[in-house]
Amino acid sequence: MTRPITAGIDGSDESRAALAWAAREAVRRDLPLRVVHVWRHERHEAFGADGPDGRERPGGREDQARWVREGVAAAVREITERHPALEVATEVIEGDPVDLLVPAARDAEMLALGSRGHGAVVGFLLGSVGQQVIAGAERPVVLVRADDAPSAEAAGREVVVGQQGEPDDSAAALRFAFEAAAARRATLRVVRAWSLPPVFAYSPGSLKLLDDAGGLEPFERKALAAAVAPWRERFPDVPVVEHIELGSAGQVLLELAGHAQLMVVGRRARRTAVGARIGSAAHGVLHHAACPVAVVPHE
Q: Domain UspA: where (predicted)?
């Protein structure tokens, strides 16, 4: 089954940037583009309101729905003018954004969203809607800021991906990153951040592994090489830089974000009493990286 690149839009500058990014990605990968606008009926003087008998007043729900559809059509026209050969489908849905965007992601190769929306995805990064969409999505979600431009891609900047743990722990993120780099003919920088563990964290087994590796940094370097090796074989044409650095994962990735055209982070969502959490590294990168950020669920 061919999965489309899906863009969730809401009329904001951020979502228009996400739509433009998704269109370029669809062209690069020779995939169709699906544009989804999730909206809610707002009782606002600009649109009127339902009367006390529940009947539609002029400028009420139907006018608002027509305004939304016209906005989507205008956005799609702009995309098809830039990419006339691109296959584009649109869907305008009224309802809850989380309930509808999560299934939209499930059927897509990836879901692109503006990093700060107004309306359907209000408070995307800081509020509950964004975290729920990211945590609930079974496919990668790409966050795009309003000032994103294709110039970063044309400048040949790197794709950057974070790797941690055992090879299987980052397999999904590495696959996505290698595919993205291959589609762009870009260099891929694979980053493994490490820190000095407390003395009491060492066990006899871990000490032996460190001794065999020759120390902490060589151990981390070998771990990164082992994680990357199968993907190098699958994507032999992708130039790869293996990057080891002492520090927190979020800090190290953010230092590299300024030179990246795309940042890829994995996530293992956790449910807590205060809602979904997506991990400190992903959370920090989402808040502060200027480049588009792809959040890839662990397999």
A: 1-145, 160-297
